[in-house]
Design brief:
A six-stranded antiparallel beta sheet has the order 6-7-1-4-5-8, with no helix packed on it. The chain has a two-stranded antiparallel sheet with strand order 2-3. It has strands spanning about 5-10, 15-20, 25, 35-45, 55-60, 65-70, 70-75, 80-85. It has no helices and eight strands. Helices cover about 0% and strands about 40% of the residues. Strand 2 (about 15-20) and strand 3 form a beta hairpin. It is an all-beta fold and about 100 residues long.
């Protein structure tokens, strides 16, 4: 990876979603701008805030997709990351920005 680029493995986006009230929302339903979560698998030398293995929140519309060894990845700049979520093994709560 070069400069401030981040390679992200997007999270699985299920076709159907459920609201908190239990209402099933089909995949074909039009929604506003929806952000997606993904795991950082590689980062360039000038990336300062994100580490390998971090879960990040990003806009799926502002992305470049790349396929490597049969897997799909997303290529982003560090400035396109909206939030960094806690890692699965962390005991802390919440998100940090």
């Amino acid at each position: 990876m070069l400069h401030d680029r981040i390679l992200v493995q997007p999270g699985r986006e299920s076709g159907e979603r459920k609201s908190r009230a239990g209402i099933v929302i089909p995949a074909t339903a039009a929604v506003g701008r929806r952000l997606g979560w993904g795991e950082v698998v590689a980062a360039g030398p000038h990336v300062r805030q994100v580490s390998l293995g971090d879960m990040i929140l990003f806009d799926p519309e502002d992305r470049a997709e790349v396929e490597f060894e049969g897997s799909a990845y997303t290529l982003l700049r560090e400035r396109d990351v909206h939030a960094i979520g806690q890692q699965a093994g962390d005991e802390s709560t919440g998100l940090y920005l």
